[in-house]
Fold these 4 entries.
Entry 1:
Amino acid sequence: MKILALDSSGLVASAAVVTEDKVLAEFTVNNKKTHSQTLLPMVDEVLKIIDMDIKDMDAIAVAGGPGSFTGLRIGASTAKGLALVCNIPIVNIPTVDSLAYNLYGTDKLLCPMMDARRNQVYTGLYEWKKGKFNVLLPQFAAEVEELAEKINEYNREVIFLGDGVEAQLQKFAPLLKVPYLTAPIHLSKQRAAALGALGIEYYKAGITEDADNFEPVYLRMSQAERERAEKLESQTR
């Protein structure tokens, strides 16, 4: 089984080809170039270096949100286009889940955080237990104060990872009543290899989608949608 994995949900762009027992290739870039410039060339390079074609893939795993609205649309359109050409399914991986999947085997609570701005993060809570990855709180958008409350309820040491660590952690760290660590740099951001490994598990469980039906999950309105809603609300007062 071979899966092409794509993640353009945040600042990082990443592409990988994985099997059940190997990461055949991975290309990750975090240099502020737009994903529309980097993602397809990265896919091409990853396939070329391992002497494979997109038609050799059994499925395409993609970060299905939440995340950057533009980044998610680029990832979704890329995955849909390639899947349609090859007549293969898409494996829709929750972005925050795949971030947590970077950290295998720890006994600590895992809390990925993606910066959602406006004092919010996209987050979730996860754990590894007896070699199994468990979702304790499915991904959600939260005010940082709300997240601190939820973490305190578990009364466990927690590891934070994701770009929300730099942007938001210091704002609510004083509210935490549990010890915490931050993930090292090689495990702290989106990696297509981790997304692909989780995609293998989804694929084996039969959790796939047709390219025609796949749509990313945003969890909240875009800035333009919020501004439009605020304008309409002010007009009705």
Note: The chain has seven helices and ten strands.
Entry 2:
Amino acid sequence: MKLSKIYSNFPDKFKPIIFNEGLNVIVGEITLIKNKNDKKTTHNLGKSILCRLIDFCLLTSSRDLFLYDHEVFKEFSFFLEIQLENKSYITINRNVSQSNKISLKKHESSKQDYTNLAEESWDHSKIALEKAKNIINTNLLWRIPKEYNYRNVIGYFLRSQNDYQNVFNLSKNKGKEVNWKPCLASILGFDGNLIYSHYEKEVLISDKQKDQKYLEKIGEKSNSSLNEKKQLYKIYRKFYQKRNNI
């Protein structure tokens, strides 16, 4: 996937940005200084904001975004054109006030302007957020385990400053390693499915060890309650069904 173009329905307020084929650099430059003692710098001029906007167009579910905090963006719709591996394109249209309704259009030529495109001309018009993610994921053909989608990958390319504290483990990665390590392995060129399978086996082993301890505990009793017998039966069924998994 390559970024091709990002624009809005208010081009006079947000000018279209065309991405180059190669390296793209965002430069913040101050052109007006009121006096010599002014301490303005090229920091906090909106360079990181563009990354957040791209993330919005790539259908992040997060509500912690500047677009939702200011009324001025209420009427904005943003369009992100991305290039697929087969050299075709998909344009993603997302409105700020109706951010859970997404429109998608696949096309062969780049640098399109669909700000005035009729609703019936979109391939998918105002569909649910999760459905749109699935359609995009299918078209991107990411080489990652099926348990993940492109949203799991995006974080490694659209990083905040906090995400550089650990090169491999992003700040947003919470919980178990299975939630992110297989996906990362795929990005680095390894077989992420093998990593995912490893963690699945670990869970199965842990579950069986817990069941074994429970069985040993019940076995020490001379009389077992009806509930305990039912639990024994459940454990037996689980062992029977999964006996070939390890």
Note: The two ends are 37 Å apart (CA to CA).
Entry 3:
Amino acid sequence: MTATEAAEVAGLSPSATSYHLRALARYGLVEEAPSRGDARERVWRSTVHSWQVDSGASDDPETQAAEGALVDAYLAREVERIRDWRARAGDEPAEWSSAALMSESVLLLSADELKSFNDEVLRLIEPYKRRHRIAAPPEGARTVVVTYKAVPLD
């Protein structure tokens, strides 16, 4: 997206957003994307294809606050995406409605088992990530979000 498009999402001015995009680029979090035809417009794209937070791992209060804000934003976006899906699920082709899944399982694991379980789930997801398939997606492929959380309840 352009700085102007990002500004609309962020609620900032295009010049402020442009400044922040250049700062993110210095740290490798975004990069310039190919132009959409108008060489005057500067298009940016994320270089981050997935992320994870070791929430609560830091003793630094500022880091914990930043982690908390990031997780809160992630959870809000997740709820928005699910509600959006539910609102349009009835209009989706049957093959997509039957393929979509929301599931929760309560497991009984040791910390070592949870680490192994997480590694296995991430290994299963990796080959399907958009960045690996964007050049030659299977026919009928759509972008699908898979969210995964594994946290102790007690």
Note: The beta strands are 30-32, 44-46.
Entry 4:
Amino acid sequence: MRITSLNLRGFFDWESRSPQITAFLRGVEPDVVLFQEVVYLPEVSPFSPVELLNRDLGMPFRHEAITRLQRGRTHSVYREGLALLSRLPLAATQTLALQHEEGDPHQRIVQFADVTADDGVWPLANVHLSVRDDFALHHLGEVLTALRARGERRVLGGDFNVNHLERHASLWHDAVLTSQVATYQSHPSTRENDDYFLVPNEFRIDRVRVSGDELSDHEAVTVDLSRAAAG
């Protein structure tokens, strides 16, 4: 299973970036793409950027959760959220709102998706956590607690908004972070790393790649996964 995560940065500088994003994804050929910062701005386009990208990519399955309504610098009100594209069927999707903490300007969500492949279902989660470390780590803890309560072991991917997330490995068990097997910086302007995959030990990380900085203010992170051998 090949999965790419990209913080899309909405429609910012869209005319120059969108052809590069399309070309990049065509070259990488992921089975699933997880997007963050997916916007709906009717004054810019009646379609989301993921819908527009998929006109060229032609991936047959799409799920979008543009559920956050908030104020912006350029547009007084804008809608923003998460989305995914998949070459493989989606058996189920679900979007949950995470708890909102006082002082956090954002209401965050998590997007769950069950992707059906020839070797069975791949349970995924797409995240974009809050911009301050304490809020982001609280949200990650909330997601992991919910998954444990549900008895689910999901591959989490997205923009975690925490530099050196591997330093907080006490939050999870029996899982590996991409930054623990590969060295990279996904946010070049700050020389930090915000984007990861957190992979349960039922799966194995075979390869981690990052894009250049021409796609967004974040680099895309692509992970190749396989199922770990039993026993």
Note: The first helix runs from residue 14 to 28.
